[in-house]
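re: ur question from earlier - yeah i can do the single chain one, its not a big deal. heres the input i used so u can compare w yours
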Amino acid sequence: MSIPQSFIQELLARIDVVDVVGRYVPLKKGGANFMGLCPFHGEKSPSFSVSPTKQFYHCFGCGKNGNAIRFLMEHTGMGFIEAVNDLAGQVGMVVPQEDISPQERERQAAAKVKQATLNDVLERAGNAYRSQLKEHAHAVQYLKQRGVSGSISSKYGLGYAPPGWRNLASVFPEYDDPQLQESGLVIVGEDEDKRYDRFRDRIMFPIRDVKGMCIGFGGRVLGDEKPKYLNSPETPLFHKGRELYGLFEARDALRSMGYVLVTEGYMDVVALAQLGFPNAVATLGTACTNDHVQKLFRFTESVVFSFDGDSAGRRAAHKALEAALPHATDTRSIKFLFLPSEHDPDSFIREHGSDAFARHVANALPLNDFLIESASVECDLGQAQGRAKLSSQARPLWNLLPDGAFKRLVLGELADKIQIDTRELSELWTQAEAQEKRYQRGASKPAPSYDAAPPASSMPPDWVSEYAPSNHSAPYGERWQGNSSGRGEWKSDWKSDWKGKGKFGRKEQRPPMPGGPRVAPSTAPDQATRLLLSQMAFMERLDNDDLDTLVHQPAPHGPLFAWIESQFQENGPQAWAVLKERIASTEHAHFALQLMNGPHGHPEGEKEEQFQELRNILGPMMAERIGTLATEALKTYMANPSDTAAKVRYQSLIERRNRLLAAPTSSGN
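and the output i got, formated as tokens:
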């Protein structure tokens, strides 16, 4: 869907960013601007400024900035389209859509009306449940026994569904309204005349989306009846594989405490909030999914999964591991906390105290350790066969990791456990994957190997000179090291200190290049530009560090990346056909069209493969950017040794850069 730029500009002209930010952040007038504590990082003195004249917010501490649309996206986790719709609804504007058929526009309008109606139905039910809680002393007593105070109960909107089959009939006079069934509040039997409330004699937990709207409920019995927990069914609003209980309530705490604690039940979340850990969320009766993890990383860079130490808890943890691995970039932290089998977080804190629980969280099992532990199940590492089994079980888990320094480090740790050289392990896994692919294709002949440099006789005369760094930029991630006779090999060249490798950790070399007209090589920034122009939706999955790296690339790439970001902020994801028209009148037109119309234009492959390629490109680019910032910080400190902030920043940047560049010492590079 594409939204006209003129509409975005008109919307931002009607919206007051002070009002938008003020709904989430307490602001005080300070000169021409408004000031408050930054919602994006923990701080004790206000450094977050909102300008009513510029309609812009900026934090002088963490650097976050943007307009009202950007604030909603950053603070609430909304997508661009969702944020625009939210703001437009506040001022009574209807969002136009350029590239959509009348039928689809009508369908979307109907879906929006239905969503609003179902939200209203659920909100009314939630109000009724909260009223019922006040009238049933035994339900209030149950919460008190669990240590839940009135303030926490109010914050999470807890209620009570009393016994009886049709209590909601007093709330909704038209009890046969289909929307009651569609929202999951009422069950309709095979005989249409038999209707009854889904939730009866249960403590009610409203499930809210990131905007705070009620999209479903969870109900817990007061005794030991089964099922203990009951969720709303799948509805147009509620998909349990995507939603997390307590995320709306925990947003501010996630930023101030620096991590999110993922638990297994509603009561865990509420009890932890009561006991000083308001940064807890819970999955909704289902295993942790990729969508869950992706949503969490919109709000924090650190996730701690908390599970019971029994076999069921270990199985749940393994599911969470598989969901988390694709998101384990070099700058994120993922840990696994296992409590004694007789405890859940609530009981553990009550018995041992908050400090003991905080220590357990700090000492939780890092992702790499849990990956190795999971892969080592039923492996006797004292025997060669056991270590071989570990290799077999570890490979599919390791393959889920995104390329980067962390993935290489894990490869080194696994190689140590298996007692094999890192390079040998990488080659074994590469061969195993190639065999699997040949088997899947039904191929009978082995795939060609390019372990040797291409012979000079098979190379075009201009092969070396065409790709020599002195003449052109090297193909992204590679350079040719050789002489004019054609002898040599392709080597990774992600800057001098980036130890680039192929997909499985070893350096890959190019096959002989076919003859024909010479084609200008593609650089890493070139390919990143093509990927973002052809798949602009990838912008939604990039964080501020990624964007900072891109826009600070030398011209012409950096200014073009800045233009792409501005288009995304103003209009959301757009197809290349739309971008092509928009860029035609800009200074970027010639360069962008040259990239997209050339032989490498419009990258092929599955969308996820293309995104992974973009991530692979961004790693070394980000390392170089961080190195530049570190140099600037060092110069500042050297010019003024009393500037301790510059020293701390320099040390922090160097540590971060080293993590990106780190590689196993046994890799042979």
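The longest strand covers residues 214-221. not sure if urs matches, ping me
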